Structures are given as structure tokens and as C-alpha cells.
């Protein structure tokens, strides 16, 4: 792959799972299907300016996204 093709958009699209609840679940399901499953899901945290929004995102992931994933 040529260096000039490795853009921020490419990296975000291929290395990150970003979106609302349904989009994250869709992307995680695709990853699950492609890899045959995974045992651990890591969430990378950065300092957020809006703590309430950050807490809501963590709670949504824990209570609405992860429970929908298949189990190993």
C-alpha cells in the first residue's frame, strides 16, 4: 500500500470502531465474524472535556453493546 494512501480517514475507518450504539455493534459483529471471535474487548480512553458524555458512552458500551455480542 503506498504511503500516501494511509490517511487519517483510512486509519479511522480500518483501525477504529466509532459510532452510535448500532454502528459500534455492527462493526464489532463484523470483526467477530472476520476473526472467529475474540476474548477481550479493550476500550481506549482519552481525557474527555465532557465527563457526563464519557460516562454515558462507557455505560452504553457495557450495558447495550457488549451484552449483544456473541460469547466465546
How would you explain this protein's 3D organization?
The structure is a single chain. The chain has helices at residues 8-15, 21-35, 51-65. The protein has 72 residues and is mainly α. The longest helix has 15 residues, at 21-35.
Provide a quick synopsis of the model.
This protein is an all-alpha fold. Helix content is 53%, strand content 0%.
List the helices and strands and how they pair.
Elements: H1 8-15, H2 21-35, H3 51-65
Helix pairs in contact: 2-3
The total of helices stands at 3
- Nearest-integer average pLDDT: 89
Largest sheet: none
In total, how many domains does the architecture comprise? 1
Keywords for this structure?
53% helix, 0% strand, 72 residues, single chain, mainly alpha
Amino acid at each position: 500500500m503506498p504511503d500516501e494512501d494511509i490517511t487519517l480517514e483510512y486509519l479511522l475507518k480500518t483501525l477504529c470502531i466509532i459510532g452510535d450504539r448500532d454502528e459500534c455493534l455492527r462493526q464489532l459483529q463484523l470483526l467477530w465474524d472476520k476473526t472467529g471471535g475474540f476474548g477481550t474487548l479493550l476500550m481506549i480512553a482519552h481525557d474527555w472535556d465532557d465527563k457526563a458524555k464519557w460516562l454515558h458512552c462507557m455505560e452504553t458500551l457495557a450495558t447495550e453493546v457488549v451484552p449483544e455480542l456473541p460469547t466465546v
